[in-house]
Structures are given as C-alpha cells and as structure tokens.
Fold:
Amino acid sequence: MAMISTDVLIIGTGPAGSSAAALLSTYGIENMVINRYRWLAATPRAHITNQRTMEVLRDLGQTVEADAYLHATPQDLMGENVFCESLAGEEIGRMKSWGTHPLSKAEHLLSSPTFMNDLPQTFMEPLLFSTACRRGTQARMSTEYLRHEQDADGVTTVCLDRLSGEEITIRSKYLLGADGGNSLVAQNENLPIEGKMGVGGSMNILFRADLSRFVAHRPSVLYWVMQPGADVGGIGMGLVRMIRPWNEWLIVWGYDISQPVPKVDAVMATDVARQLVGDPTLEIELLSASTWTVNDAFATQLSKGRVFIMGDAAHRHPPSNGLGSNTSIQDAFNLCWKLSHVLKGQAGPGLLDSYTAERAPIAKQIVTRANQSIGEFGPIFEALGMTGGDDIDVIKANMDARCGTGPEAAKQRAALDAAIAFKKYEFDAHGIEMNQRYQSAAVMTDGQVEPAFTRDADLHYQPTTWPGARLPHVWLYDAQGGKHSTLDIVGGGAFTALTGLGGKAWVAVAKTVGAEFGLDVAAHVIGPRQRYIDHTGDWARIRDVSDAGCLLVRPDQHVCWRIDGLATDPTAELRRVFAAILAR
Ligand SMILES: Cc1cc2nc3c(=O)[nH]c(=O)nc-3n(C[C@H](O)[C@H](O)[C@H](O)COP(=O)(O)OP(=O)(O)OC[C@H]3O[C@@H](n4cnc5c(N)ncnc54)[C@H](O)[C@@H]3O)c2cc1C
Structure:
C-alpha cells in the first residue's frame, strides 16, 4: 500500500479539478490531482465560456487566455440562435445571443477585458490541466477515489490504482471533491444536497458532417429544432450544436426518463441526425453517443472540516445558460486563494468557512436558473400549438395557422415573438454570469448598504465596488499609452489596494500592514504621472469612493473592503480589516 503525501488532493480533472490544480500550483501550493480514467474529457460537453471564466484564465496568465481564444470559436460566430423545423426546413424564429446583439455587445465590451467564446470541454480541460502540470501539479490518471477519513491534522484517502489493481493511500492536508455530478466525495462526507436528480433524459450524438450549406449564412452555436416529439424529456427540444464550424456537431435529443435508457447505435444516431437536419440522405461520421440525465440539485454546504466539494459535485443542473463548467472554474477561483493563504499561515482556517457562505448561494442560483430556462421553452411550444396532444397532422396545422392573415394568426405570431424574445434569460443572461456578489466574513461592508439593481439582475451586469462585488473593469493607461484593465492590476494570488493621488498614504500603509500579516500586498495609485493613469475618467466615475479613498481587492478580484477617504488612523484601520478577513 503506497503512502503518498501532498498538501491538497483533488479528485477529478474536469474543469473544476483542473482549474483548482492550475490555481494552486500558480500560488505555489503542492497539490495532486487524480482521475479514474486514463485521460481528460472524451466528449465536448461544456462549450459556452463566459467573460468571468475568461477573466480567471487571464489571471492565470495572458498566454493561458490566448490559448483559449486560439482553440475557441469566436463570439461573432456564436449568436444567430435559430429556431427551425429542421436545418433544411423552415426557420421559425431567431434571437441574437451570447452578447452578439449590438446592445448586448456594448455591455460585454464595457464589462470585461475578455470575450465570451465557444471552447469545447475537450479543449478547455487540456488547457487547464497542462497549465497545472507545467506549474507543479502531480497528476495521477487511472486512479479512482474510493473513500477517505479526516482527522484534526489532515485527510487520508484511499484510491484504487486501476493499472495494478492495488489500493494506494494519499495523505493530504485538504481534500477537494471535484468529482462531478455523482460525487462520491460529497456522498461519503454526507454533504446536504437539495433537489432532485434525473428529472429528464437526454442523449448526445457526436458526429462529423459538413453542414455549411445550412448554417454558414446564419452562424450560431445552437440550432433548435421544433418537431413533434422533440419536446420529450431532456432539454425540451431537438438541439443541433456546433462543435467546430461547420463540420463537427453534437445533437442533443430527449428521451422519456420513465422509460428504459435507449441504446443509441449508429442506425438510430443517423436517423435522428437526418430528421433534425432535414436531409434524408445525410451521411454522418458518428464519433460517439451517450446518454445523460437532467438534474435539479445543489449542495447547501460545500465543505466539512478539511473536505470541500466544487463544480458539478456541488451544483447539478442541465446545460441551459451554459453555466456548469463556468461556475466550476469560478468555484476554484474562490476557494484556491483561501487554501493557499491558510496553508502558508497567512490566514486562519476560519477563512475557509467563507467558501460555503459565498458559493452555496451561487450554486442554488445557477441550478434554479438553468432548470427554469428549460421550462421557458414551454411558451414557444404553446405559441406554435405543439402542446395539445401528439397528432402530427394537428400539430402541423397549428404551426401553419400562424401564417394566416386574420387576428388569431396575428395573436399567435405575437405570442411566438414574445416567447422567443423571453429566451434572453437563457441565451443572453449577462447578469447571471457577471453579477456575483458575496456576503461572508471574508468581506467587510462596514454597514454600507448593497446598491439595488436598477435593471434586471439576470440580464444586465451592474458594476459596483460595494464590498463583495467583483472589481469593475475599466481601461487604464500607462505612460507609454499601453492599456491595462483594472482586473489586470489586481489578482495573481495577492491582495491589492487601489487609491487615487489624494490617498497616496494608503500605499505605504497597505504594504506595512500586509507585511505584518506575512502578505505581499500590491498597492497602486491611479492618477496622472502614476504607473496607471485614468485618462478617460472611467475609473473615477466607477470607483464609488473619493480620490483619497481606498479599495481593498482580494486575490479573486472581489472587493473586500472600501473607505471613502483617509482614515484617522489608516494603519489601525487596515489591521482591523486584514485581521477580520483573514480570520486571524
Ligand atoms: C451537453 C452538455 C453541454 C454542456 N454545455 C455547457 C456549457 O456550454 N457551458 C458550461 O459551463 N457547462 C456546460 N455543461 C456542463 C459541464 O460539462 C459541467 O458542468 C462540467 O463538466 C462540470 O465540471 P466538473 O469538473 O465539476 O465535473 P466533471 O467535468 O464531471 O469532471 C469530474 C471529474 O472527476 C472524475 N471522477 C469522478 N469520480 C471519480 C472517482 N471516484 N475517482 C477519480 N476520479 C473521478 C472524472 O473522471 C472527471 O475527471 C454541459 C454539459 C452537457 C452534458
């Protein structure tokens, strides 16, 4: 029985586990990641990669961010979200999605230095995993987690080496369960999960076929096919999803969860593809076929003692809104700097309690949103007259009725337009992606009231420096005119103090007090003839504090404290703040 030791053992090399490994190694924390299989994701499940995730990649290094764009389908090719009878058949409606509507695009550009893109999981995982391994992570494939026990000093985990059949024991100070929607770590630790698993059945059919003639003139990631039968189970209708433009595809098709799981063979896969593409002679190169279930469950507690869960282990939901892998990577960004600070003795273990306080509400929010988005296909089916039984002729007649000249047809068209436009909550919900605000002991509001959302918080990002919110992005300039996002001058595993010329005194205080806590705090004055200059005045307009005020930003780019001007005793003030936030 081999005994291996590491500081942090991570179960799973998915987006959650690989990003945690990459972040921990970047912060200089010894870690090991294991996967029961011999390699990473075999199918391109997650793909929509939102701006907040790209900011995490950018924080890992601009080469990591650049690699993601290199392999991704760019945002401009993502957005003509089409609803049709089949790819070759009649188009029923369309909505500009994923930040490609001109108004939405402006919001994206104003919110972040990064771009949404379509990066299949088969590219994202290798990128994160190789970053981790290059920076020091020990990886063990074909190694299956079986069980663990924790004590006051650490966790002893037993795994199966699937190559030799031997059990191995790994001793770590912390254990991260990034082991997906059927998390054995969560189960063994008895972490409370609310909701239901297996509420719908779906199958994935991955294939190659050149479909350019149907799609290249209306580029999109998703083509929704509304046919009788397509609303059975799964995600609500037939989906033809672009993997690589325009010759690799994934069909997602529902099955009735109350029936046995269908066996998807080449004949069935070809039939489904022909039906959804609308070309009875289509030949496909079938790459793989699999089934999965739609879940509606989230953990209300994400850790117990030295064991943490993250990613799908903590939030289990359908792909709607494309939040799964994104949220998994963002979980890691939240947890890893905390682990790093505790392991380096810079923070007390109490800091780790803020992980559940901050991320459990997000888990609930995204699971609720993703499942609600499935339900919101209902009005489209209703408007088309697809909900009153399964007589195909009746359904066809109902769908045709919208093309009439009378008032009933006009009403039907209006209902269809409204139902499609409402899908903005799934396909263009920028607020859900960017508005995460934390409330925990690792954030000090000092009684400052959270600013209310002035627009729909699911749809629109609203910048604020209220403690708990992500630092807003604006462009700053250096003396040579070079551009730097505010997000580029914070993060990187460190706390950062930001102030104006009137608050210059905060810089020395932040450095001194930081050193007392064993921290290398970064501190920047933003102003004329400083390293970062606010030529446009955008920073002054968005910072919410005066020129003499100060913002303290955590390593995960969330503001954790702010003050409007110079304090009477700035040193005592920052000591109080660091002691509270770091649980010292
Ligand atoms: C069709 C589809 C489309 C999707 N689209 C999107 C999208 O556009 N955007 C998005 O953000 N999300 C999307 N998702 C969701 C996304 O795939 C998941 O949310 C994401 O993979 C979760 O990452 P994870 O690392 O938590 O878990 P997983 O990716 O499931 O990884 C779990 C890891 O743990 C390992 N493991 C499990 N058990 C053990 C064990 N006992 N021992 C050792 N290793 C173990 C596995 O081998 C794997 O490496 C989609 C999902 C599907 C099905």
Notes: The chain has 18 helices and 25 strands. The mean pLDDT is 96. The pocket of flavin-adenine dinucleotide is lined by residues 11-17, 34-37, 45-48, 121, 144-145, 178-180, 184, 204, 252, 292, 311-313, 319, 322-326, 328 (CB under 6 Å).
